[in-house]
Design a protein that fits this description.
heterodimer, A: mainly alpha, two-stranded antiparallel sheet, 2 strands, globular, B: 2 domains, 5-stranded parallel β-sheet, 5 helices
C-alpha cells in the first residue's frame, strides 16, 4: 500500500519534470540561439576597426549615453517622488487605474505627439504666434531634432515614469509587503520621524532596491531606442542605435558588418550600466540617497483631517484619514502631458490645410482615417501579431510559474528578462539569423516568435508578484477537500488571479503593438503594422497620416486594456447581509 | 489640577458604516501597565493606532478609519498632533525590525538626531548590552531569534524616550519560558521609566500581577 503510493508520486514527478524541461526549452533555446548568432557577428574585429575609423561613431555614442542617462535619472527622480506621494497619501492604488492608459501609449506615438507640439510649426509656437513672437512663418529652429537630443530626452522621460511607477506599485500591491511597509512607516513616525522622513528612510531604501532592474531596463531602452530617435532624435550625427540601424539596412556587406558590431558596442554599454546599477556600491548609494531629497522635499504630511465637535472646547476631536487633493500636483502634471499628447494626435489626424500661425486647422478632413479604414491588412497584421504573441506569453508564464521549481525559475529568470535589457537591435540581428536558419524569415510564425521574445519579460514581470502572493496553503486546503489540481486551478487560483492575468495579457498586447524593429527586420519588410506605418510616415513628415496611425497605435492597446479591466474586475459582493 | 498619565476617551471608532468602539474611556497612570482585552475584530489595534496617531496609515479596503474622541497625555490634549510629535511608542507583535539596517542601525534610528555622535554610539552599545546582544550590533536582523528580535524592538521603542508606550501583543510569537522572562523585563522597564503603558493581548497570563484589565465589547452595528 505504502509502496504503491510512493511509486505514484514518483511517476507524477517524472512527468512534472519533463513538462518543466519542455517549457524551459521552448523559450530558452530561441533566446540562447539568437544570442549565440549575434555574438558571432558583433565580435568581428575587422568591422570593429572600421567602426572606430568612422568620424561620427564616437560623437553618436556619446549622444546615446547622454540621452539615456539624463532621461533615466529624470525618470528615476520623478518616479521616486510620485511613489512617496502615492504611499504617504495612499493615492497610489487609485493612480493605478489610470496607469494602463499611460503605459499603453507607444513610444513612437509619444514621439509623434511631441513633434506636433514642439516642432517649429507645432502647436506651442502657434499658440504664441504672431502675438508674442511676431512670426508669420515657422522659424528655422531645430526644436524637435535638436543636436542635444533634448526632445528625445523629454519623450523618454515622459514614457519611462509610468513604467517605473507601475513596477513600484506592483510591489505595493502585494498585501504582505504593503502591510509590512505601512507598519514600519507608522513605527518610524512613533519614533519621532515626520511622514516624509519616515518614508524616505524606511520604505524608500527597500523599494528602491527592487526598482534597480526596471531602471536598468529604462536606461538600456534609452541606449537602444530606434523608432523614437528616428522621429525626435538628432540627425547629424544621429544616436548610435540609429547609426547601427542605418548601416544594417545598407546594401554594402561591410556596412552591415559594421552595424552588427555597433549593436555589440551598445550591448557593452548596457553591460557596463548593469554592472554599475546592480553591483556598484557608489551607484547604489547615489540611487537611494540621491532621490531622498526629492522624496522628502517639499515635505508631505499625513492625510488626517481634524475637526472639533460642535460643542467646542474641550473637544472630542474627529480624526479621519483624509484624501488629499493638493498631492495630485505632480501626478496631474504627468496626466496633463499625456492628455495633451493624445489631443494633439487626435487633432493632427483630422487636420487638412493648416497654415502656420493659425491655432486651428483651416480645413478638417477624415481622409487619413478613411485610408486607415481601408488598410485592413495593416490592421489585421497588428492585431493578429499582438493577440498571438501576448496569448502565447501569458499561457507560457502561467504554465511556468505553476510548474517550475523555485531554483529553476531563479536560474532562468535573468535570461527571460534579458530582452528588456539588451538593445532591440541586438535581438533583431540574432532572431533574424535564427529565422533564416529555420526558414521562417518573413513568415508569420517567425514574426510571432520574434514578438513573443520581446513581450515575454513584460508579461512575466506583471504576473510574478500576483503568483508570489498566492497563499500556497489554499492548494493544500483544496486537495484536503478531495479536489484535483485542475479543480483548484480553475475554481480557486485562476479566478483569484484574474485581474493580474488580464492585466498581463493586455500589457503583452501593448508591447507587441509598439514593436518596430522586429516587425520590420524579422518580417523582412513584408508585414506592415500601425507602428511601422506611423514611423515611416513621420520620417516623411506627413502630419495627418502619421497622427492617424499614431493615434491608432495607441487606441488598439487602450481598447485592450479596457477590455482586460472589464474581464478582470474583482467579484463584487453585497455590502451587508440584510 | 492636572491628571498625570494617559487618558483615552473614545466617542466612536469605526470605518464607514461600521463602528467598532463606542463610548469607551480609560486612563493609565505613570508606570502602570493597563491590559486591554477583547474579542478579535473589536478594534483593539485600530484604537492603538488612534492613540499613537498612525490612523491615517491604516487602510482597510481603502475606506478611511474615523476616530471621534480625545487622547490626553499628562492632561495635554494630543489628538490633533501628528504621530511623530506625540512621543508615544508602539511595539507590534511582529518585531518590524527594518530589514535594510543592521541591528545597531535599527536602534540608532530611534536615538534623537541632535545627540553627539560619540554619545549616540555609547547609548547604542549600552542598550545592546542591556538586552544581552552586545556582539550583535552588526548583524542582519533577519538572523536573530524570535526572542532577540522582540528585545531589539522593545529597546528601540524605549530609546526614543517615549512619554507613553503601546504594546500590541508583543509576546505572541514567543514560547512560554521566553514569554515569562520578557514580561518581567518589559514591566520592569515601564516601571523604572515611570511611563504609562497599554498592553493589548489575548492571553490572560500576560496581565501583570495586580494589574487592571479593560475589556472592549464587540459592537455589532452594521448599517444596511
Amino acid at each position: 500500500m505504502l509502496l504503491a503510493n510512493l511509486s505514484l508520486t514518483a511517476r507524477r514527478s517524472v512527468s512534472h519534470r519533463l513538462a518543466v524541461i519542455f517549457f524551459a526549452l521552448i523559450v530558452s533555446v530561441p533566446i540562447a540561439w539568437a544570442l549565440f548568432a549575434v555574438a558571432g557577428q558583433a565580435l568581428d574585429s575587422a568591422a570593429l576597426h572600421a567602426l572606430w575609423q568612422q568620424p561620427q561613431a564616437r560623437s553618436a555614442l556619446a549622444l546615446s549615453v547622454w540621452t539615456a542617462l539624463v532621461s533615466g535619472v529624470l525618470a528615476w527622480l520623478t518616479a521616486a517622488r510620485l511613489l512617496a506621494i502615492g504611499f504617504v497619501h495612499q493615492t497610489l492604488m487609485r493612480w493605478m487605474q489610470h496607469l494602463p492608459a499611460l503605459l499603453a501609449t507607444p513610444h513612437a506615438a509619444m514621439a509623434i505627439a511631441l513633434v506636433l507640439w514642439l516642432s517649429p510649426s507645432g502647436w506651442l509656437l502657434r499658440l504664441v504666434s504672431p502675438t508674442l513672437t511676431g512670426f508669420q512663418s515657422p522659424p528655422d529652429w531645430s526644436t524637435t531634432q535638436d543636436p542635444w537630443g533634448l526632445g528625445l530626452i523629454l519623450a523618454l522621460w515622459l514614457k519611462e515614469v509610468p513604467f517605473l511607477l507601475w513596477i513600484g506599485a506592483t510591489q505595493l500591491r502585494r498585501d504582505d509587503i504593503r502591510r509590512r511597509w505601512q507598519s514600519e512607516y507608522g513605527l518610524a513616525q512613533t519614533l519621532g520621524y515626520p511622514p516624509s522622513a519616515a518614508f524616505a528612510r524606511v520604505v524608500w531604501p527597500q523599494l528602491a532596491l527592487t526598482l534597480r532592474w526596471p531602471l536598468l531596463a529604462v536606461v538600456a531602452y534609452g541606449l537602444g531606442v530606434v523608432d523614437m530617435a528616428l522621429i525626435l532624435g538628432p540627425t547629424t550625427p544621429p544616436t548610435f542605435a540609429v547609426l547601427s540601424w542605418q548601416w544594417l539596412g545598407d546594401a554594402n556587406v561591410a556596412q552591415q558588418a559594421m552595424g552588427a558590431v555597433a549593436a555589440g558596442v551598445l550591448t557593452g554599454c548596457v553591460a557596463l550600466m548593469a554592472a554599475l546599477i546592480m553591483y556598484g556600491r557608489a551607484t547604489r548609494w547615489l540611487l537611494v540617497r540621491g532621490a531622498m531629497a526629492v522624496v522628502q522635499w517639499p515635505p508631505l504630511t499625513t492625510p488626517v483631517s481634524l475637526a472639533t465637535s460642535a460643542h467646542g472646547v474641550p473637544p472630542p476631536w474627529t480624526v479621519r484619514a483624509k484624501r488629499y487633493s493638493h498631492s495630485y500636483g505632480l501626478w496631474a502634471a504627468l496626466l496633463v502631458a499625456y492628455l495633451l499628447s493624445w489631443f494633439a494626435l487626435a487633432v493632427g489626424s483630422v487636420s487638412g490645410l493648416w497654415p502656420f500661425p493659425h491655432v486651428w486647422p483651416a480645413q478638417w478632413t477624415m481622409g487619413a482615417w478613411q485610408q486607415v479604414g481601408r488598410s485592413t491588412a495593416t490592421l489585421w497584421n497588428t492585431f493578429a501579431l499582438a493577440l498571438a504573441s501576448a496569448t502565447f506569453c501569458m499561457a507560457w508564464c502561467m504554465a511556468w510559474l505553476e510548474l517550475a521549481p523555485r531554483a529553476w525559475h531563479a536560474a532562468l529568470r535573468p535570461w527571460l528578462l534579458l530582452p528588456m535589457v539588451l538593445p532591440a537591435i541586438v535581438w533583431v540581428i540574432g532572431l533574424y539569423s535564427v529565422a533564416l536558419f529555420v526558414r521562417l524569415e518573413g513568415q508569420w510564425l517567425g514574426l510571432i516568435g520574434a514578438h513573443a521574445v520581446m513581450v515575454l519579460p513584460y508579461v512575466l514581470l506583471a504576473l510574478e508578484p500576483a503568483y508570489q502572493s498566492v497563499d500556497a496553503r489554499q492548494g493544500a486546503v483544496a486537495a484536503s477537500l478531495g479536489r484535483s489540481r485542475w479543480a483548484y486551478l480553475f475554481a480557486v487560483k485562476w479566478p483569484q488571479l484574474m485581474p493580474a492575468l488580464m492585466a498581463a495579457w493586455a500589457i503583452g498586447f501593448a508591447v507587441s503593438v509598439a514593436q518596430y524593429l522586429p516587425t520590420l527586420y524579422v518580417g523582412a519588410g513584408r508585414f506592415d503594422t500601425v507602428t511601422t506605418e506611423a514611423v515611416t510616415l513621420a520620417a516623411n513628415g506627413q502630419r495627418t497620416f502619421m497622427s492617424a496611425y499614431a493615434a491608432l497605435q495607441m487606441l488598439l492597446p487602450i481598447a485592450i486594456f479596457w477590455l482586460a479591466s472589464v474581464m478582470g474586475r474583482p467579484r463584487q459582493f453585497a455590502r451587508s447581509a440584510s | 489640577m492636572t491628571t498625570q498619565g494617559l487618558q483615552v476617551n473614545t466617542v466612536s471608532l469605526g470605518q464607514g458604516a461600521r463602528t467598532w468602539i463606542r463610548d469607551d474611556a480609560f486612563s493609565v497612570a505613570p508606570g502602570e501597565v493597563l491590559t486591554i482585552m477583547g474579542p478579535s475584530g473589536s478594534g483593539k489595534s485600530s484604537l492603538l493606532a488612534a492613540i499613537a496617531g498612525t490612523l491615517g496609515n491604516v487602510s482597510v479596503d481603502l475606506e478611511p478609519l474615523t476616530f471621534v474622541g480625545d487622547v490626553r497625555l499628562h492632561s495635554q490634549v494630543i489628538t490633533h498632533l501628528p504621530a511623530h510629535q506625540r512621543g508615544i511608542g508602539l511595539v507590534y507583535q511582529e518585531a518590524l525590525l527594518f530589514a535594510h539596517m543592521t541591528v545597531a542601525e535599527n536602534l540608532l534610528f530611534a536615538v534623537p538626531q541632535r545627540m553627539p555622535r560619540v554619545e549616540r554610539a555609547a547609548t547604542i552599545q549600552a542598550a545592546l548590552t542591556e538586552i544581552e546582544l552586545a556582539d550583535f550590533g552588526d548583524r542582519d536582523p533577519g538572523t536573530l531569534s524570535g526572542g532577540q528580535r522582540a528585545r531589539v524592538a522593545i529597546m528601540r521603542a524605549l530609546l526614543a524616550k517615549p512619554k507613553a508606550i503601546l504594546l500590541d501583543e508583543p509576546f505572541a510569537q514567543l514560547d512560554e519560558t521566553l514569554r515569562a522572562q520578557m514580561r518581567a523585563w518589559v514591566y520592569a522597564q515601564v516601571n523604572a521609566r515611570g511611563i504609562p503603558a497599554v498592553l493589548v493581548t489575548h492571553d490572560r497570563r500576560d496581565i501583570p500581577a495586580s494589574g487592571r484589565v479593560h475589556t472592549l465589547q464587540r459592537e455589532a452595528t452594521h448599517v444596511g
